[in-house]
Design goal:
By secondary structure, the protein is mostly helical. Helix content is 89%, strand content 0%. The longest helix is centred in the C-terminal third of the chain and has 35 residues. It is elongated, with a radius of gyration of 16 Å.
Length: 72
């Protein structure tokens, strides 16, 4: 699993990060409007996308490594 995680992060990490960043930027662009509801939606959704990307790129591989090590 260790080698599989490294290979996956090496090959799929950059495209996932690129997709998350461009999606977050698109949502943050909605935050520049004068309508308060859409602006808040843009900031919340953009921040949520970035937080999900961080969790997927850093937390999930660590959890997989820990669970596999314990034999669950």
């Amino acid at each position: 699993p260790h080698e599989a995680l490294l290979t996956t992060m090496r090959t799929m990490g950059p495209p996932i990060a690129t997709g998350a960043i461009t999606t977050a930027v698109a949502f943050f662009a909605a935050g520049t409007t004068d309508f308060t509801g859409i602006a808040e939606l843009g900031f919340i959704a953009g921040g949520g996308i970035l937080l999900c990307a961080v969790a997927m790129l850093f937390v999930l591989p660590a959890v997989i490594q820990l669970v596999d090590r314990s034999g669950m």
